[in-house]
Amino acid sequence: RKAGYIGGKEEHMFELMDGFLKNDPVSLQKDILHHVEYTVARSRFSFDDFEAYQALSHSVRDRLIERWHDTQQHFKKKDPKRLYFLSLEFLMGRSLSNSVNNLGIQDQCAEALNQLGFEYEVLAEQEGDAALGNGGLARLSACQMDSLATLDYPAWGYGLRYQYGLFRQIILDGYQHEQPDYWLNFGNPWEIERVHVSYAVKFYGTVEEEVVNGEKCKVWIPGETVEAVAYDNPIPGYGTRNTINLRLWAAKPSDGYDIESYTTGDYINAIVNRQKAEIISNVLYPDDRSYQGKELRLKQQYFFVSASLQDIIRRFKDAHGNFDNFPEKVALQLNDTHPSISIAELMRVLLDEEKLGWKKAWDIVRQVFSFTTHTVQQEALEKVPVDLFESVLPRHLQIIYDINFAFMEELKAKIGPDYARLSRMSIVEEGAVKNIRVANLSIVCSHTVNGVSRAHSELLKTRVFRDFYELWPEKFQYKTNGVTQRRWIVVSNPSLCALISKWLGTESWIRNIDLLARLREFASNSDLQKEWQMVKKVNKLRLAEYIETMSGVKVSLDAMFDVQIKRIHEYKRQLLNILGVIHRYDSIKNMEKSERRKVVPRVCIIGGKAPPGYEIAKKVIKLCHVVAETINNDNDVGDLLKLVFIPDYNVSVAELVIPGSDLSQHISTAGHEASGTGSMKFLMNGCLLLATDDGSTNEIIEEIGAENMFIFGAKINEVPTLREKGSTVKAPLQFARVVRMVRDGYFGFKDYFKSLCDTVENGKDFYLVGADFASYLEAQAAADRAYVDKEKWSEMSILCTAGSGRFSSDRTIEDYAENTWGIQPCKCPS
Ligand code: F58
Known about the structure:
47% of the residues lie in helices and 16% in strands. The protein is of the alpha/beta class. It has two domains: 79-94 and 129-478, Glycogen Phosphorylase B (Rossmann fold); 485-816, Rossmann fold (3-Layer(aba) Sandwich), CATH 3.40.50. The strands form six sheets. A nine-stranded mixed β-sheet has the order 7-10-11-4-1-12-13-17-18, with helices on both faces. The protein has a six-stranded parallel β-sheet with strand order 21-20-19-22-23-24, sandwiched between helices. The site of N-[(cyclohexylcarbonyl)carbamoyl]-beta-D-glucopyranosylamine has 17 residues, from helix 7.
């Protein structure tokens, strides 16, 4: 398209624009009113909180766009190696508060709104969550985007713009129900639709052979074309002008879509069919226990990968004549196996479209991809049935076969005729149903394979990917996960943020998290401890009000707030928590009045969504509700114990719950949680951890000290032996007693809970709930004892925050940049 600007006279244009937007309260007010009138189209004399939120968001967005343009222009000029972060999931949560904070204009916004009769905090609450992801993996992507922007890395995120994000959890009678999350219903001021940035993505069809210039080559004749349209979401860094891009693709029908129906005169059907193209980006797949090859899922993966690669290659070609230095300019990060089809797609483009020949194409592909896996479970590794693959992406299947053939030859030459090992490592799984093992494809074709914690990496090397580790030890690295302190302290816990800055005498820790360690010097200072307790109290009050609104339960602020919020899974052992609560209740009931005085009051808080098809996880939610019903209505127990389930757990709920927690539980069966990131958010907010030695816990112990945590349960290496012993492992008597209470219908629903009880008894107990029960209770008792001593508890709490620096995503990203991606900061001038 023809550029229509005034001859590129920058100065003149700048004058016309009246310079950059200003951030003083009056300028902000003008912008807000402008957007009320012309964007939201309401009268500037009458608009409500939501409309004010929209207008404010557009005003902030304008500022982001300026920075975004400058950043992209700067990157273009400098042409650094860029990182492309490919992820099918981003759990961004709310954008307003995050953007305002990163731009450093919170006070100005608050003042501007105040004079207009609005409250900034109230407006921030108007925003719904962007929940384009399931859990830890997706929130990690969001934290990493924040760090990439803040640390000035030349990075882009790519993903899918789902119309329906993660389902909303509705609780009816204690049962989970799922409702669609149509998050775009009220518009999304944070995205910029780029109608002119769109690419054709092709599916199905056949592959034919042609002779071009005397050489045989493959030609894919696709059967369906869908258009991918870009939606850009600016990601501002903190304390920098750099603002990077998260580009999400939406599916639209292409002009040629279902041309047949038109030509046969079936006009109405043709239109209906066109809408089917949009299904691809309709809905986020909720977490399922095991991956089953689904056509729509494969199409989603290829759709976003194909559009992203076309975009990346176009950008590269604009600046470079040929592909020789592609690996010096492009790093492609595979966030789990979900985008791994991009390996075959890049091969296809280089072979079939760019005609580079196999050797050169393969040489490039092997240098650009890095792969991070987020799971420990073998059954969670993606497999795609070959039949399905062949139908949807016939040319890609051929390429994968060719890659596998070359790999098998290379491997045979190295290890000889060890057919069992060859078959384990093959990208193609033989059997009744032939499958493509996507993880194997990713490992073979990536230069680096990352785990998400040290323990996870050990498991990958010794169990999950042992064969590959023995072949290519140098490929295996790990980057312990981290979370961004900008969202998880500064935005969600402003009082703690102010307190930390006051005692450190600087706000620099917001960019340089290592400074937090200096809080250790003041951990035993009684003034800090008092202020620290005050901050906690204010946050607990906010949480208590929320609990009362959501569940009608009144809780005492003197009680210890004990929290477990995360997806509901057997391995995360919410059941262990609930059985522990039952034990506590039972013990209180059996105490003399005089003994009860010594009981430390508790509010046990559980929140999380169960995968829709995961029956046992759903029963755990129901169990939590019926136990809560009994306990909370028992006046005899009163404030000594309460149990609440927080419905529809999401990022915003986490922002409210975490600052108000005293203790948090990370109690997965050792060897099952790849890393865990929730623990890091609690840690930053001065919450003590009750945890198993799983995922990143032992790295946390190194920073905080085991004496400041409550660690319990079997160690990773003990788990297999305990499992082998099976029914001979004796669970303690208390365990049998609490399970019996559930079995016998003490809380009702006897028949319904039978299958749940069966998972932990009669020698089954795969997740070792019974085997860990005694040490779990001991750890809980230790937490009670510690809580009684307020000074000691405050000191431990301060030490948690002080030791949390290593778990900032800034550290993770710097490590990736240096050791995996090979990228350098590229700072846009202010
Ligand atoms: C999580 N994985 C890990 N997967 O369980 C957690 O230990 C880790 O801290 C986190 O990744 C970040 O590395 C995870 O969240 C998913 O959500 C899958 C998404 C695709 C469907 C199956 C679940």
